[in-house]
Amino acid sequence: MRRAAAANPSLSPDSLETLLADPRTAEGAAANPALPVPRMHALLDHCLNGTTTPPGAVQR
Questions:
Q1: What InterPro entries does the record tag this protein with (predicted)?
Q2: Phi/psi at 15 (nearest 5 deg)?
């Protein structure tokens, strides 16, 4: 139920950040279609490299 709620596209970016920090809701929040692209890239960088990319440094 929590993961499904975290995937709700009407959530605010602040709410998504809070949900991403909680292991119980992080997966749903990461799948949220409203998650900003720079934040998606930062999550992927962290998962793949163990590093984070500042949102302004993302290349398109």
A1: LRR_variant (IPR004830)
A2: -65, -40
